[in-house]
Write a structure and sequence with these properties.
single chain; alpha+beta; Heat Shock Protein 90; 2 domains; five-stranded mixed β-sheet; 5 helices; 5 strands; 54% helix
Length: 189
């Protein structure tokens, strides 16, 4: 445990817990009450259950981030990446594979995990893919999906702009190759 109550990490963890995490949990409880309403139709109940599952995934991610901020001994990058991808894709039929290993400077880990997270979310939401593969090598992370491609048309999107900004902060570069058969994103460190 991080023993300093005045550290920036502890302050951030406290703010996340007392603010966002509590609000999300309260929203979840209200959603549970609506789902339990006898007057709710089955189609609406099904849709609300899907939303509740998504909300639960977000709540778990926030809790994981609070844990990471409060603990000195954190999981290695590879395990954090696998856990993150598993959570992001848990409510989908998309399969994933993470192979290889990489050592990431602890000061760069947060930005890199956030960048990869955004790229996986893009593949999940926009590519209509069935599979995502992530290959880790000492100097590169390669993220490949078998979706419809077209990510090049979205280069000016806020998500990809944010990924580029995060990578720039840690001195990494991104190259995107997209075809109708899928998209490949190379992050060089």
């Amino acid at each position: 445990m991080n023993s300093s109550p005045n550290s920036e990490r502890t302050r951030l963890a406290r703010e996340l817990h007392d603010g966002l995490a509590q609000e999300l949990a309260a929203f979840g409880y209200r959603l549970d009450a609506v789902i339990g309403d006898d007057n709710l139709g089955s189609n609406n109940r099904s849709t609300l259950r899907e939303l509740r599952l998504s909300l639960s995934t977000i709540i778990n991610q926030v809790r994981d981030e609070i844990y990471e901020l409060r603990n000195e001994k954190v999981k290695n990058f590879n395990q954090q990446l696998i856990d993150q991808i598993q959570t992001l894709l848990s409510s989908t039929a998309i399969t994933y594979e993470v192979t290889g290993e990489i050592f990431i400077d602890p000061a760069h880990k947060f930005e890199l995990l956030r960048a990869i997270r955004e790229l996986v979310i893009n593949a999940k939401r926009h590519a209509n893919c069935n599979q995502i593969k992530i290959l880790l090598t000492p100097s590169e992370i390669l993220i490949v999906d078998d979706g419809e491609g077209g990510v090049i048309d979205k280069e000016n999107s806020f998500g990809l702009t944010g990924v580029s900004e995060r990578l720039l902060l840690i001195g990494a570069k991104m190259k995107i190759t997209s075809t109708p058969a899928g998209t490949s994103v190379s992050i060089t460190l």
